[in-house]
Write a structure and sequence with these properties.
Belongs to the LysR transcriptional regulatory family. It comes from Amycolatopsis ultiminotia. This protein is of the alpha/beta class and 296 residues long. It has 3 domains: 5-89, Arc Repressor Mutant, subunit A, CATH 1.10.10; 91-152 and 260-295, D-Maltodextrin-Binding Protein, domain 2, CATH 3.40.190; 158-257, D-Maltodextrin-Binding Protein, domain 2 (3-Layer(aba) Sandwich). The chain has 12 helices and 12 strands. The chain has a 5-stranded mixed sheet, with helices on both faces. Strands 9-8-10-7-11 form a 5-stranded mixed sheet, with helices on both faces. Strands 1-2 form a two-stranded antiparallel ribbon. The relative contact order is 0.13.
Length: 296
């Protein structure tokens, strides 16, 4: 017969401290018959009587007095382990996220995680920095920028400007300088999209359209990119949600299928799986991602 050593020792300690089986069972929060059975099983397991049952009180035998300190240590150690486990479950999982995630979206993601007994702490960083933070173990996980076809989440990108475009798409050829010799229109890439799988196709399309190198530029920050678009004919490479938040008119880029891809990378394998499976919808909201069927 397998003995629940911790449960039996807990009943033994509670009864010995309370002085009766009934009161001890109440302290241990178990029915009195259960306490009696557990103590009897412990006695069989240890090979001796723990209590003298010839009196109305639960009086320890010499054998019971000798074993009580060990039982108390075992119960205290089990309680300490449960406390440690609770603290470990509540230890924040530090997650590196893009600066495109709004404070509200991150707060809602945090609230959703807490309902699932996950506790998050966010570190906002650019794509390269997020990868570095995981490598140096400064964060436990990151939403890494990956090619769209490799991502668990996909965010479509296009071009947005202050003026409402005439067509359903914006072709880079329309940014060629006119005969008037006015300032050349530019496409601004925000830091989140300054990654090879997004920047390089746009640069190749720029060259194919006959634009000048400076007409596709990387901004130091999203705010700087947006500021360059406001009051000008320049365009911002961004998601539809970002365009709405900035009050810009968004269209897909003609001849290009540009999209951010994101996946979870983590130092510990179970962290990645836990985030990907348990918080998939909340992370999608933060990123402004589309559902897989929408992305097709």
């Amino acid at each position: 017969m397998v003995v629940d050593l911790i449960g039996s020792c807990r009943a033994f300690v509670s009864v010995s401290e309370a002085g009766s089986f009934t009161a001890g069972a109440a302290v241990a929060r178990i029915p009195q018959p259960v306490a009696s059975r557990r103590i009897a099983a412990l006695e069989r397991h240890l090979g001796g009587r723990l209590f003298d049952r010839s009196t109305r009180r639960a009086r320890l035998t010499p054998f019971g007095r000798d074993l009580l300190p060990s039982a108390q240590r075992l119960v205290a150690l089990a309680d300490a382990m449960e406390d440690d486990a609770g603290r470990a479950r509540r230890r924040p999982l530090r997650l590196a996220v893009p600066d495109t995630c709004s404070t509200r979206d991150l707060a809602e993601l945090d609230a959703e995680a807490r309902r699932k007994e996950m506790f998050l702490e966010f570190c906002v960083a650019g794509p390269a920095r997020r990868a570095e933070l995981v490598r140096t173990q400064e964060v436990r996980a990151a939403l890494a920028a990956v090619p769209a076809q490799d991502g668990a989440w996909t965010v479509p990108l296009g071009l947005a400007g202050e003026a409402e475009p005439a067509g359903r798409v914006i072709h880079l050829e329309t940014l060629r300088a006119g005969r008037s010799g006015g300032p050349r229109r530019r496409v601004w890439i925000q830091p989140e999209d300054d990654v090879p799988h997004l920047r390089d196709p746009l640069v190749r399309a720029r060259d194919a359209a006959g634009l000048q190198p400076a007409q596709v530029a990387v901004a130091t920050a999203l705010t700087a990119a947006a500021a360059s678009v406001f009051g000008s004919a320049d365009l911002l490479l961004c998601s539809p949600r970002q365009a709405r938040e900035l009050g810009l008119a968004w269209r897909p880029a003609g001849g290009l299928r540009l999209a951010r891809g994101f996946d979870v990378v983590a130092g510990l394998g179970d962290d990645a799986g836990k985030l990907r499976a348990g918080l998939r919808a909340g992370i999608a909201r933060c990123l402004g991602a589309v559902e897989p069927e929408q992305a097709r």
